[in-house]
């Protein structure tokens, strides 16, 4: 990778540097003194040429992603203050959470406020109810975190900076139904809305699709990659040492330090190719369906996992739906019971570990309310199975993963957030498992536990079949 103009100047001899500085215009010297972006950026941090729609920056920690995103969106907002109708333009910045967006993208040392102050641009910063920055000509930069699947909807955005997308709670739906349709402003002088994505890589479906498009020659996606060590001169030795101590020699380190997008994550129990291989459009007749539920606080995220799995007449398992989301208390209970109703499930299977004994009562109360409202037949007990896991999460998940390897589990359609969690969880490096994965495992473990042994009957009649399983 190339060096910045500042680094090139630093490598000059004192005499060469003096002569070069004397040949520059006063405004150039002023910008050098305040460390303007053209002076400090490396070539790969400059906005690429071409007719791209997505600039995907996959790099390790400390590469300079935040500074690149902040500088780009300010450049664009100044270039296009108004749309073709004369209205002030809208710009969108979205991080993993609103707190992350504020801490890193807005107020951090490489964030937007630092860029505006260094350039001497007048602005007004509104912190509540949601952060927004209004620039001199009325253009507004809106800030969000990925709190739900509706993030990014309703804007008439001229451009977007999406930070740490690989770590978002939701990706496909937010991009396809929220952000992408909002990038619709009509810009003058042949301009068009664009999105810059700055993230450490994880092999989630959306990023893999973008990378594939870029590498196949699709001009609408421009790919930039890089490692932490390319920005070595701007990182403290202590920070470098700590990053090496934490990540060197690990699979996660290949992502976090070297910005490497792994086709399949070494150590993960599932792979995208395996799930894709046995994916189906429709399930056969089912002999039993259950809803697996994992309450928030038992996994790596704050979601409530709700996943529906059916056992087919062919004795294979079929993943039918994923209703997981940021749900707690009664709302989570109602959503789980609604899944039971929609799929005519035999049971709701929920983990009762971690001192969450109150959860059973919440589920029973919600069931009773829905029963009184006529959503369940009167007089029947709640079809609830509370399970207490006696094994570690890896040991519980391994038999489920084995069924995938045997081709005995099929996803009916695509469940990208669930699949991304499955294929990026590394049990040996991450103690806790994601909530959607836990819900999947609860459901499939329950179905496996209902199996009865297959009895082989020896008979002299040619072609006689063994007795099958029953439920």
How does this structure look, described?
The protein is of the alpha/beta class and 471 residues long. The chain folds into 3 domains: 1-40; 49-256, P-loop containing nucleotide triphosphate hydrolases (Rossmann fold, 3-Layer(aba) Sandwich); 272-449, Ribonuclease H-like superfamily/Ribonuclease H (Nucleotidyltransferase, domain 5), CATH 3.30.420.10. Helix content is 36%, strand content 17%. The protein is built from 17 helices and 14 strands. The protein has helices at residues 5-10, 14-22, 26-33, 37-40, 65-79, 98-106, 112-119, 172-182, 205-215, 237-247, 251-256, 272-277, 329-342, 358-372, 393-405, 416-424, 435-449, and strands at residues 54-59, 90-95, 123-126, 132-135, 140-145, 157-163, 194-199, 221-226, 286-294, 305-312, 317-322, 347-351, 384-387, 409-411. An 8-stranded mixed sheet has the order 3-4-5-2-6-7-1-8, with helices on both faces. Helix 14 links the parallel strand 12 (347-351) and strand 13 (384-387). Helix 13 (329-342) crosses helix 14 (358-372) and helix 15 packs across helix 17. The radius of gyration is 27 Å and the shape is elongated. The N and C termini lie far apart (61 Å).
Tell me the CATH topology of the largest domain: Rossmann fold
Classification by helices and strands: alpha/beta
Calculate the terminal CA-CA distance, rounded to whole Å.
61 Å
Rg over CA atoms = 27 Å
Number of helices: 17
Domain module count: 3
Low-confidence stretches: 453-471
Highest-level CATH class of the largest domain: Alpha Beta
By CATH, the superfamily of the largest domain comes out as: P-loop containing nucleotide triphosphate hydrolases
Mean pLDDT comes to 87
The tally of beta strands, per DSSP, is: 14
């Amino acid at each position: 990778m190339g060096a910045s103009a500042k680094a090139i100047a630093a490598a000059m001899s004192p005499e060469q540097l003096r002569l070069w500085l004397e040949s520059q215009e006063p405004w150039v010297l002023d910008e050098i003194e305040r460390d303007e972006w053209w002076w400090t950026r490396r070539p790969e941090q400059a906005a690429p040429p071409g007719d791209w729609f997505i600039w995907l920056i996959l790099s390790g920690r400390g590469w300079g992603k935040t500074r690149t995103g902040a500088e780009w969106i300010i450049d664009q907002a100044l270039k296009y203050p108004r749309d073709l109708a004369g209205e002030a333009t809208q710009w969108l910045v979205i991080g993993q959470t609103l707190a992350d967006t504020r801490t890193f993208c807005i107020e951090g040392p490489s964030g937007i406020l630092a860029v505006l102050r260094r350039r001497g641009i007048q602005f007004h910063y509104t912190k509540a109810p949601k952060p927004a920055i209004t620039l001199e000509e009325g253009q507004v930069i809106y800030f969000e975190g990925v709190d739900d699947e509706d993030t990014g909807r309703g804007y008439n955005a001229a451009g977007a900076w999406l930070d740490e997308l690989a770590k978002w709670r939701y990706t496909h739906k937010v991009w396809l139904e929220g952000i992408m349709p909002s990038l619709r402003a009509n810009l003058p002088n042949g301009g068009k809305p664009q999105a810059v994505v700055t993230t450490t890589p994880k092999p989630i479906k959306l990023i893999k699709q973008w990378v594939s498009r870029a590498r196949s020659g699709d001009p609408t996606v421009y790919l930039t990659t890089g490692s932490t060590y390319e920005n070595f001169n701007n990182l403290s030795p202590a920070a470098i040492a700590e990053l090496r101590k934490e990540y060197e020699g690990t699979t996660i380190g290949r992502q976090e330090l070297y910005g490497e997008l792994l086709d399949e994550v070494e150590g993960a129990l599932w792979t995208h190719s395996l799930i894709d291989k046995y994916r189906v459009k429709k399930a056969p007749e089912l002999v039993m369906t259950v809803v697996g539920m994992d309450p928030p606080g038992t996994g790596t995220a704050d979601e409530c996992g709700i996943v529906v799995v059916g056992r087919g007449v062919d004795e294979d398992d079929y993943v039918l739906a994923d209703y997981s989301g940021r749900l707690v208390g009664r709302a989570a209970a109602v959503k789980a019971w609604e899944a039971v109703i929609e799929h005519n499930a035999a049971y709701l299977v929920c983990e009762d570990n971690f001192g969450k004994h109150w959860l059973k009562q919440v589920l029973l109360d919600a069931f009773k309310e829905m029963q009184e409202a006529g959503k369940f037949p009167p007089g029947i007990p709640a079809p609830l199975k509370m399970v207490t896991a006696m094994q570690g999460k890896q040991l519980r998940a391994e038999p489920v993963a084995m069924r995938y390897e045997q081709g005995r589990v099929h996803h009916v359609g695509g469940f990208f957030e669930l699949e991304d969690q499955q294929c990026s969880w590394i049990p040996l490096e991450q103690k806790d498992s994601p909530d959607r994965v836990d819900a999947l495992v609860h459901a499939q473990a329950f179905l496996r536990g209902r199996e009865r042994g297959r009895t082989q009957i020896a008979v002299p009649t040619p072609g006689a079949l063994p007795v099958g399983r029953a439920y």
